[in-house]
Please model this.
Amino acid sequence: MKILVLGKNGQLAQSLALTRPAGLDVTFLCSQQINFLEPENWDDQFDCDFIINTCAYTDVEAAESEKEKAMQINCYALEQLSRLCVQSKAHLLHISTDYVFDGKKSTPYSEKDSTAPLNVYAQTKLAGENLLMSKNPNCTIVRTSWLYGPYGKNFYGTIQRLAAEKESLNIISDQVGTPTSSLSLAKVLYQMILSGKTLDSLYHFSNDGVASWYDFAYEISKITQSHCQINPIHSWQYPSKAKRPHYTVLNCQKIKSEFKLSSLHWKEALDQVYQQGVKK
Ligand SMILES: NC(=O)c1ccc[n+]([C@@H]2O[C@H](COP(=O)([O-])OP(=O)(O)OC[C@H]3O[C@@H](n4cnc5c(N)ncnc54)[C@H](OP(=O)(O)O)[C@@H]3O)[C@@H](O)[C@H]2O)c1
Model:
């Protein structure tokens, strides 16, 4: 079985490289080799059974002023990707986000809940989901939340650095979700592929449990033995261009029961990421 991972330098792709099961044939392509801004220049065929697309325009704040670029990478380029997957008879595994929801619920969001994105990034991710669903029956979308890990720029690395430098940090406590380790997600993607089962079109996956950004930052500071004081603040006290949902806990029952997964609590997953150290 051959797997092709797009987005070699991103945090999820690097976690897929780190957790690759022994003997599995996995190739990684970076944005210089397959640029989502120029899908017309891609080769005509992929030689693989599965493609995992981790590429995305992921800067939620910058997307507010770069909508066209975010649309191109998160949506329009997927038309060509989808066409090549169908042509190559490769199954596409695509990653999406909890931000497709507006956060007005107070119980976990399932795959059947209605979407209503609040910001440009989320709108472009949802547009990408819809395009794939309409063009490619051989495609599986996995929505995840609050992704972080040992690689790349993410909340975990940022808080770890700031907590070492500063005496106190103010962190939003009224946005609630589930931090998800890129190592956990990478493992699940391999489990799905190796299960040999027919994959459905949409799944939710996060680590277990519920946290606010404040809870997450507090645990990061605790695990790293920082003496930094972490203070809870409201969203309105931290102005940003992009609106963010207040509650995006995902209901992951479907993926867990179909693939018999035992997912880690987010605090256990955080410990696992901490053991890896922050990688450059
Ligand atoms: N981060 C989160 O909190 C979060 C939460 C929920 C869902 N997700 C989703 O999870 C997936 C993986 O996210 P991540 O955090 O691993 O993202 P990431 O670290 O920001 O990596 C994104 C990848 O996309 C690639 N990319 C950007 N522009 C590109 C272009 N024009 N052409 C080709 N590739 C391009 C980047 O390549 P270069 O490095 O070479 O530029 C990078 O490899 C994404 O679909 C994201 O939407 C993320």
Notes: The radius of gyration is 18 Å. Residues 2-154+178-208+249-266 form a domain with the Rossmann fold fold (CATH 3.40.50.720).
